[in-house]
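Worked example (supplementary).
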Amino acid sequence: MSQTLDPRAAAHVSEVAVSVELQTPGMTINIGPQHPSTHGVLRLVAELDGERIVNVEPVIGYMHRGYEKLSEVRTYPQITALVNRIDWVSGFANEIPLIVAVERLMEIEVPERAQSIRLILTELARISNHLVFLSSYPLELGASTPLMHALREREHVLELIEGVTGGRFHPNFNRIGGVKPAAGGGSTQKKVLQDLPKGFLAETRLAMEKVMAICDDLDSLVTGNEIFHARTKGVAIVPPDLALAYGVSGPNLRASGVAFDLRKHEDYLPYDKYDFDVAIGENGDCFDRFDVRLQEVRQAARIIGQAIDDIPSGPLQAKVPRVIKVPKGETYVRAENPKGEMGYYIVSEGGRIPYRLKIRTPSFSNLSILPWALKGLLVPDIIALLGSLDFVLGDVDR
Amino acid sequence: MTTFVAVEINFYVLLVIKILAVTGVMLGGLLPVILGELKIGAHMQSRVGPYYAGGRWGWAQPMADGLKFFQKEDLVPAASDTQVYKIAPYLLMVSTLALFVIIPFSPDLIAVDLDLGIFFALAISSLSTLGVLMAGWSSGNKYSLIGGLRAAAQIIAYELPLVLAVIGVVIQAGTLSMVGIVEAQIEMGVPFLIGGQVVGFVIFFIASLAELNRTPFDLPLAESELVMGYLTEYSGFRFAVFFLAEYAGIVAVSAIASTLFLGGYGFWGLDPTVFGPFVLAAKVGILAFLMIWIRWSWPRMREDQLQTLAWKWLIPISLVNIMVTAIFKVVF
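After joint prediction of all chains, the assembly is encoded as:
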């Protein structure tokens, strides 16, 4: 932890003064690895003074599956199946940077239509991921109803993804040089039948209307609630300089007021063709982190609307060799995952398998802010902050 | 007192009858509220809720749940303070059940019409703090301990506005007897919100939500933080007793609120001796629905915000309410 930053700046000023005359021994409490709101197997060792947090130490690693090492003995097409499972809430989006990295090393030009389909599915994955967050965060603060409503609408999005790829969570749909011929298609079927399923575009348009409607519902049910404001506004503020110092990325960084979005800065997918805004927050508190994601869902629906309006025609795959062999070299491709910056650093010695694959996951860096941001807060704020960071333990431990 | 029992009966026999009647009323009022919680909550979340148990609407689900709890192992943690751990749920249950003793269902249908009726209710409901604190302390679990202490702090803080809200009613009615309060409301011609005690009613309702540990004041249970608060280690029958006590508390507090503020068994044009119990049940149903509605809509408050609400808002407002009520009583 950086010592130069003042840890008190993050502590919100509570109206309850703690008596300092009475010497009471602190309590160390283990939150997790089995706990209702640690999103899996995160363990927090919290030192408490009454309800106030003196220190929090996150313990990670319970979910380590060794994906980086596993990748070293797998061919590039096989790795795609692995990376789907890193952040299982936004499976499709995990594939993109890896595939793009391999394509850049092999110098393959991907057809425009495949790029557009990738972009639509990535944004659908973003909506799906954010709807999980927008629904589960109120649950962590005690409101159980938004969960059901948002997950109901998410089902439409998952059905769209399933219609195209055949999988709800782990599509494994990208191929090096393009995308897989659509579900049910194969080499025996005609090329026309292997494209997007019939009626996909119309159904997407309908689903986007439902997504916009649920955003309005959430606005009235959650962000318009006094208690929600009291629980989140000014709680666990992450100032922009600190967020940058810790490598926080994605909506968490934008909530702190830094307008950094890789969709605008990198060209891994043709985002420059579409018109959308980067949602940013003002204070970097829990409320902003919620609000930024809510706005991002709207922006994603906007991007999808434009993308299905002018989806280019053409082939789904570029010409690639039967056996994928990547020439010697190394590259790093990063992309705006729903949770933040997801990057793959590939070192190839030539041949069918990578020499080394380093995976940069957003949740790991986002979670590293935890001990700093929690000092001096109250026990309920642990949950308020944990939930608002929107991490997945598979994404932290890989 | 108990004039509906015409013949002279031995004191102890009468006592047993009264105990059975109170328990029966409690259970009878409880099961619909539990079912309502399950069903209404489900429909608010676009779910179906209980469906199969009992045939239609899953009406037997609360009983099925109860039977399930009976079958479960009664686990006592090794680290627990065993005696205290075992007694705690029953203490809570008794303190809640005792509230039913003073609730009038009609001018005659009341277990005991104490002169100090409402005073007794407020006193006995404070006992629930003890049960919760015992459960939290004796479980030998840090989450339970935090939950128990939160509950104690919360109940103590909200006891004050609860009592102060009642004082306005007592001033208006000029009596502490529950039947007397209802009769005073009927005499005034408007069988609810006695003498304009709107503020008192709102404060009483908020404070009783906190007393019952209901959302948005369910911090002692706070599932996402404290796992299950002071209930974490309880299982089987003892958990079922806690569960029943919670819902019995909803019915009891709703009944007391109806009696104090909503005219109890009285309603325009309805003969209280015949329709009294039904009128009261309807009013309890409305209040219970409100509590269920709030529970499924709102998030949870934080400990300091909860205390702030009690000490900085509810107590001063209820004090002002008492002053205003007293001035009106003297002047007019």
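Two points are worth noting when inspecting this output. The CA atoms of residues 131 and 157 of chain B lie 17 Å apart. Chain B touches chain A through 31 residues (CB under 8 Å).
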